[in-house]
Every structure is written in structure tokens, then in C-alpha cells.
Design a protein that fits this description.
The protein has one domain (about 20-105): 2-Layer Sandwich (Double Stranded RNA Binding Domain), CATH 3.30.160. Helices cover about 35% and strands about 20% of the residues. It has two helices and three strands. A three-stranded antiparallel sheet has the order 1-2-3, with helices on one face. β1 (about 45-50) and β2 form a beta hairpin. α1 (about 20-40) crosses α2.
């Protein structure tokens, strides 16, 4: 579901109504707000809905103060446009953990530990 693409498969393009697009935007806003609650202010959080050859795609991304950007994508289907509460929680926890790991991996061995 997150970031999966069906290469080579016949994928029917989904067209969102204005109400569905607004609902998906609201879901992304909730995910971004959840990330801002659990991450320090140094982490930049953003989200967007784009249109591609396979239809709309929702993306939430986090730029940690050190390390690479981490992101998760969601592709709506005809049957399911909304991101459920459980999926939102999974996105928040997964992206926050990945962003924190990026910082840890980007730190050099020369950095003094904050506690021993």
C-alpha cells in the first residue's frame, strides 16, 4: 500500500471528485500534524497530492536536520480513497522512526554522546 507500484499490471486510472480530493488532503494534513507533534521543530514535514500516469498519488515527506528525506506514498483506488485512522497512525510512527534513524546514521562517530 505505501509506496507500492504495480509495474506491468493493468492499472485503472482513478479520478478523484473535488470532495474526495479534499478528504484525501484532510487525511494528509492529519498525518503531517501527527508528525509535527512527535518530531522536534528541526524536522520539516510536507505533503502533497500529485497526478501521474496512474492517477492521483498522495505523499508525505520528512526532511530531518541531518540525513536524507524520508517519504511515504499512498495511491487511492476506486474502492478506497480515504486513509484510515490506523493507517495514519502507522504512517506517523513509521515516518518519525525513519527520520530519526536518518539523523542517527548521518551523525559522525566523532560526535560526543549526550549520555553514557
Amino acid at each position: 500500500m505505501y509506496g507500492n507500484t504495480q509495474f506491468g499490471a493493468d492499472v485503472e486510472e482513478v479520478t478523484l471528485t473535488p470532495e474526495q480530493r479534499q478528504s484525501l488532503r484532510r487525511d494528509l494534513t492529519h498525518v503531517a500534524a501527527g508528525l509535527r507533534e512527535v518530531l522536534p521543530d528541526e524536522f520539516v514535514v510536507g505533503s502533497e497530492i500529485t497526478s501521474g500516469s496512474g492517477g492521483p498519488r498522495a505523499t508525505v515527506a520528512v526532511q530531518p536536520p541531518l540525513g536524507s528525506v524520508v517519504s511515504a506514498g499512498y495511491t487511492p483506488t476506486e474502492d478506497k480513497v480515504e486513509i484510515t485512522d490506523e493507517e495514519r497512525d502507522d504512517l506517523v510512527h513509521g515516518l518519525a522512526a525513519s527520520a530519526a534513524l536518518q539523523v542517527k546514521q548521518a551523525m559522525t562517530d566523532d560526535a560526543a554522546p549526550t549520555a553514557q
